[in-house]
């Protein structure tokens, strides 16, 4: 019973550890693909960014977080049908778009195209209908992820975001640094417009709160910092080091050993008592 209880208690940490390890593997794999043709070609990368900026310029960018909704709805409409959203900035065939690192909150996750339920089980979704996260004046990207899933951490710590925090978004070989300028919680009855602002380069992160209840919504908005600090460029190129050492395995193993030792000791004690009775 003790071992079973400990297994149930450690399940969220265990499942989250494996989920994060998988997402770190996806990120590392995508970084490896960046070194392979055509992704490693300078001209190809420049063309991809040019298309992304064209997409943003053609997009009447915006989103609305409707009352009672967990995920915002992209309201952007493009006047260029030749630019296909899912084909832009796509690395590999799994929808991987980029990498987000928010070190003070322990976030290092892949960014995927779209916000389907399957996507949001595995990482951060970029909301179609908002600007692609390549920077630029008058743009606002909206990134969203779940919070409180038993099998994944994702945006669990986003409620600890503070003004002045910085995080990075890496797309292809470009790293963009953003600084948090606004964070607020809205009630489930509120409708929130999330629009691009002239002259500003913004990203808004969205998730649910409180943890496990998910009745309200957290919106964290950050503005780009230029130039990108060199340390951020180097960190974005490093192999993901999350989730770290699996302490849950040590705790479970230690618990199992203690229980096993107790059982073995009880059996030996019982045998000794039986032997004494037999002698008598």
From TrEMBL:
Record GO terms (molecular function): hydrolase activity
Parts of the chain that traverse the membrane: 245-264
Keywords: Hydrolase, Membrane, Transmembrane, Transmembrane helix
InterPro entries xref list: Sortase, Sortase_C, Sortase_dom-sf
Positions of the catalytic residues: 146 (proton donor/acceptor), 208 (acyl-thioester intermediate)
Protein name in the entry: Sortase
Organism: Corynebacterium callunae DSM 20147
Pfam families reported for this sequence: Sortase (PF04203)
């Amino acid at each position: 019973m003790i071992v079973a209880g400990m297994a149930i208690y450690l399940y969220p940490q265990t499942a989250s550890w494996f989920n994060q390890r998988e997402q770190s593997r996806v990120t590392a794999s995508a970084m490896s693909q960046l070194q392979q043709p055509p992704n490693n070609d300078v001209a190809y990368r420049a063309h991809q960014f040019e298309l992304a900026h064209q997409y943003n310029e053609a997009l009447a960018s915006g989103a609305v977080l409707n009352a009672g909704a967990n995920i915002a709805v992209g309201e952007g409409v493009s006047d260029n049908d030749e630019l296909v959203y899912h084909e832009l900035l796509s690395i590999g065939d799994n929808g991987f778009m980029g990498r987000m690192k928010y070190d003070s909150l322990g976030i290092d996750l892949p960014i995927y195209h779209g916000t389907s339920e399957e996507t949001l089980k595995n990482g951060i979704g970029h909301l179609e209908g908002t600007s692609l996260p390549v920077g630029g004046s008058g743009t606002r990207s909206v990134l969203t992820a779940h919070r409180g899933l038993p099998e994944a951490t994702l945006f669990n710590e986003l409620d600890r975001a503070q003004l002045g925090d910085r995080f990075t978004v890496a797309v292809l070989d470009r790293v963009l640094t953003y600084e948090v300028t606004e964070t607020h919680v809205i009630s489930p009855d509120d409708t929130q417009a999330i629009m691009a602002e002239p002259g500003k380069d913004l990203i808004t992160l969205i998730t649910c709160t409180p943890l496990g209840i998910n009745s309200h919504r957290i919106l964290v908005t950050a503005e780009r910092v230029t130039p990108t600090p060199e340390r951020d460029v180097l960190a974005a190129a490093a192999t993901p080091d999350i989730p770290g050492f699996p302490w849950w395995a040590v705790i479970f193993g230690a618990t199992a050993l203690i229980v096993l030792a107790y059982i073995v000791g009880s059996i030996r004690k019982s045998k000794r008592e039986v032997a004494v009775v037999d002698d008598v």
